[in-house]
Specification:
With about 250 residues, this protein is of the alpha/beta class. It contains eight helices and eight strands, in the order βαβαβαβαβαβαββαα. Helix 4 crosses helix 5. The longest helix is centred in the middle third of the chain and has 18 residues.
Length: about 250
């Protein structure tokens, strides 16, 4: 399996990262895609990828909730990282209007700037969208949807959001522990998305699946997401694993 979106470089894992990696490998998770958050997360992210080069693969981007008045300076520093190390994607980028809309214009500007990077660098994008699907879709079309590719990370949108997301032919849906939650309505129509448009993710340490909800998430818990997808698509877990792994490996070239 590939965990296509996990933050195991964060401080929540500092005390037992070796055990986290070991449990991931034992559960069948062989590759972990690590999206950046801000300028402070660059060093621990790179350090973990250097420690486990066969299993951890870095992305580089500025998360929308970290976009403040000095975001252009942060973007410049983050962009410089692409010259220093090979990255598998531009991410985690996007628009988040859930917590605060103070910097909505700056978020849109930063998102579109990083979308341009992905075109120039010929890399996929990992998109974070929360209460912002219309804005994200507009930006993708404005920058050039046919020249962009990537994943809508942590997808849990409405049926209308799903249909519109699938209209972006080069984009996949990242499905994580939210799919196991009782109130996750999107599980009832997710099968409208072909399995070749799905990748697995944990977003660890967040969005822990049932039965561990409320505790720290980790890549080994991908198996619970596979189990739920097996039920939704009425396919053996082996097939869910094989096809989603292929999707992630092709998208991120890993």
């Amino acid at each position: 399996m590939v965990d296509s979106h996990t933050h195991i470089y964060s401080e929540e894992f500092q005390g037992d990262i070796q055990e986290i990696i070991n449990r991931a490998l034992e559960s069948g998770v062989k590759k972990l895609c690590l999206p950046n958050i801000n300028i402070d997360s660059i060093e621990p992210l790179f350090s973990l990828c250097e420690q486990y080069p066969d299993h951890c693969f870095p992305m580089m981007g500025l998360h929308p909730t970290d976009i403040k008045t000095n975001y252009k300076e942060d973007l410049a520093l983050i962009y410089s990282q692409f010259e220093k190390k090979k990255q598998i994607a531009v991410g985690e980028i996007g628009i988040d209007l859930y917590w605060d809309q103070t910097f909505i214009n700056e978020q849109i500007d930063a998102f579109e700037e990083q979308l341009r990077w992905s075109i120039d660098l010929d890399l996929p994008v990992a998109i974070h969208t929360r209460e912002a699907f219309p804005e994200v879709f507009r930006s993708l079309r404005r920058i050039g949807e046919n020249r962009l590719r990537g994943v809508f990370h942590s997808f849990s949108g409405s049926e209308k959001n799903l249909e519109e997301a699938l209209s972006f032919n080069n984009f996949l849906l990242g499905i994580n522990g939210v799919i196991t939650y009782k109130k996750a309505d999107f599980k009832h129509y997710l099968n409208k998305a072909p399995l070749d448009r799905i990748v697995l993710e944990t977003d660890a340490p967040y969005l822990t699946p049932v039965p561990f909800r409320g505790k720290r998430n980790e890549p080994a818990y991908l198996t619970y997401i596979v189990s739920e997808l097996s039920r939704i698509y009425n396919l053996p877990e082996k097939e869910i694993v094989a096809r989603t792994t292929y999707n992630a490996e092709q998208l991120f070239n890993i």
